[in-house]
Amino acid sequence: MAAAGRPQGTLFKGTRLVGTFFGSDGPGGTTWHCTGSVIDTSVRNVVLTAAHCALSMKGDYIFVPQFAQGAGPDQQPYGIFHIQHIYRDPRYTPDKGSSTTKGPSSDLDTAFARVSPNQNGRSLQDAVGGGLTFTRPGGYTQKNVTVVGYPSYQHNSTGQAVKCTVPTTQLPGYRQMSMTCGGYYGGTSGSPWITDYQDDGRSGHVIGNLGGYNGGGNDANVDYVSYAPAFGADAANLLADAVAGQDPDSGLPPYQGLQLPGGAARWQKAALMASADYTGDHLGDLLVVWPDGGVTLYPGDGQGGFGSEQRLLAANSTWTHARSITGGTFGGGRPGLLVRWSDGEVTLYPDFGASGVGREVQMAKPNSDWKNAVQLTAGQFHGAKGATDLLVRRSDGSLMLYTGIRSGSFGTGKRILAANSTWTKAALLTGGALKGTAGADLLVRWSDGSLDSYTGVSSAGLGTRSRLLGPNGTWQHAQVMTSGDLTSDHTGNDLVVRWSDGETSLYAETGAKALGTENTLVPPGT
Questions:
Q1: CA distance linking residue 187 with residue 182, whole number of Å
Q2: Helices then strands (H, E): number in the chain?
Q3: Residues 282 and 219 in one domain
Q4: In angstroms, how far is the first alpha carbon of the chain from the final one?
Q5: Would you give the distance in Å from CA 73 to the centre of its chain?
Q6: CATH number of the domain encompassing residue 76
Q7: What strands, in cross-sheet order, belong to the sheet with 517-522?
Q8: What angle do CA 189, 65, 171 make, to 5 degrees?
């Protein structure tokens, strides 16, 4: 964006719910450090800031809401509040020689502090008269977010606060929002990102804090590009720890972030995908078949991220003939993988997992009618827990539902839709348990880019149809689609889409009428 058209922050007197921090020199000095904001909690003494700010805070630090430069403690509008204890995620790991990081753990650049009453004996929230509500955003793209912070003395000798209301987008590859607005120099780290800001308001909803990648800015450290971790389960757990007065769990596994290994150039070749709990940890995983026959597994972390790639099969000629796959518990005690091959053979791998593909069970012989089974997707379409059912779209547009599947048998098959021209245009489909519905559901991407859901699919029919997206050019580029249990609500409503340019997206907690929160797993152009 050219400088002439770039938004610029406005300096103002500040607001009661946002302040800054001081060390031993107190509020009469010029070394204010980072920005904090008052969070509405039952304990009424919690301040939000950035984890990289908290790393350098010592026991003599104080928080000063709506800081007035040059005024002593007793002349500050709401007094001063000594920090009692700081809570930050121990997985936030700065890069060597730095207090910030450009790695995945930059998503965790959030901290909370408990503060003591002010010099008049009043709690933080009682003194300022309110607090911001911790809120998980519905997505990274927001129309109007206001960011309030305190630039350092070097860039702001008057000690005023800066504010700017702008739209946000996702920082590709991270659980972070990005905004463009000038004036956000050092000192604004920790600034709250508020969706319903009002000057001198006593409430509002905060969805992130300035920080994240490189401490909250791009590699050039320009003042007009700022980032913020978008609040999710990790930040919510951290806030709960602060309210409870307990230190965060130090035994959590290393944070993996959103990204899948390899860039878009590699993921452009991901031919087939399926999701199930293949590692046995009760969390959904992602399985990928590549054009060279290689098969890789990405263990899910239950938070929309994935662990290190595990190669189950090296490149081989056999798996280059896989045409459709789906994961589910097909009569066994653990998830398996069902594969339809180019010659019409169908095989089941009931022991598929991190240790390998396991044994193979033939379900249909080569050159059988299954050669016309264009798409397969699993789901509990019989409405009960346990074994997975199979929905099949054939080349003539007909739909078959198979229940009671077991090793070597497709169980009972029923045609739930006769041959028709409409369903020959179903480009992609995946079964799942969409948010807010009961039973198994189906998502369909049509050839014109439109996206429909069918809730309550069963042997009686397709259930209720809802349109999530009308015809559009963007979704015509969705090439591979699967769904599974990949986020913290632990249902099968998380949709993974691989696009034609290799970008790969996760739509967390997708519902019957709307896509879920979009997360970038593989950024475009990488």
A1: 14
A2: 4, 34
A3: no
A4: 22
A5: 42
A6: 2.40.10.10
A7: 478-484, 494-499, 504-508, 517-522
A8: 25
CB 346 within 8 A of CB 409: no
For residue 403, the one-letter residue type is T
Q: Which residues pair with 112 in a beta bridge?
A: 48, 87
**Band (251; pLDDT cuts 50, 70, 90):** confident
Reported as a single tens digit per residue, the pLDDT across 17-32 is 999 999 988 898 899 9
User: What residue type is 54 in one-letter code?
Assistant: A
Task: Please report, as a single letter, which amino acid is at residue 152.
Answer: S
State the virtual CA torsion across 341, 345, 349, 355 in degrees, nearest 10. -40
Is there a contact between 499 and 445 (Cβ–Cβ < 8 Å)?
no
- The tokens describing 385, both together, are 């827990």
SS (H, E, C) 305-338: CECCCEEEECCCCHHHHEEEEEEECCCCCCCEEE
Q: Give the model confidence (pLDDT) of 487-500 as tens digits.
A: 877 888 999 999 99
Rounded CA gap, 303 and 234, in Å? 9
Extract the runs of DSSP E, i.e. beta strands, from 380-458: 389-394, 399-403, 412-417, 426-432, 441-446, 451-455
Q: Which residues pair with 287 in a beta bridge?
A: 274, 297
The number of folded domains in the chain is 2
Q: What's the domain range around 451?
A: 264-522
- The neighbouring-strand residues paired with 33 are 21
- DSSP category for residue 231: P
Q: How many CB atoms lie within 10 A of CB 470?
A: 11
Residues 36 and 148 in one domain: yes
Percent of the residues in the chain that have a pLDDT greater than 90, as a whole number = 78
β-partners of residue 406 are: 409
pLDDT in the model for residue 384: 59
**Is 234 in the same domain as 268?**
no
Q: Does residue 188 register a pLDDT over 50?
A: yes
* CA 402, chain centre distance (Å): 33
Among residues 53, 509, 444, 481, which one has the least CA distance to residue 274? 481
**Whole-prediction pTM:** 0.63
The pLDDT of residue 440 is 81
Cα(177)–Cα(520) distance, rounded to whole angstroms? Answer: 12
3-state secondary structure of 63: strand
Q: What are the CA-CA distances from residue 68 to residues 116, 206, 229 (Å)?
A: 20, 23, 28
